[in-house]
Design goal:
The protein is mainly alpha-helical. The protein has 3 helices and no strands. Helix 1 crosses helix 2 and helix 2 packs across helix 3.
Length: 80
């Protein structure tokens, strides 16, 4: 059976390893693909916040501190 072309940017294999490292013995391809899609959505949202923060300070380049602050901001809004 031919494999479907991935709809995500993040490859499924590293997500499979991530799930296994969390303790799972077996991981279906669709399960790993579902987590990859979720992680991409979260990553995109945090990247957008980081971009806003960089632009607010007059920069085009997103730095580590922008990502850190964006994650903290995102976390506060989602898990108050």
């Amino acid at each position: 059976m031919p494999r479907k072309k991935s709809e995500t940017i993040i490859p499924v294999a590293p997500i499979d390893r991530l799930i296994r490292n969390a303790g799972a013995e077996r991981v279906s391809e669709s399960g790993a693909a579902a987590l990859a899609k979720i992680l991409e959505e979260l990553g995109t949202e945090i990247a957008r916040l980081a971009d806003e923060m960089a632009k607010h300070t007059g920069r085009k380049t997103i730095k580590e501190e922008d990502i850190d602050l964006a994650y903290k901001t995102w976390k506060k809004t989602k898990f108050p």
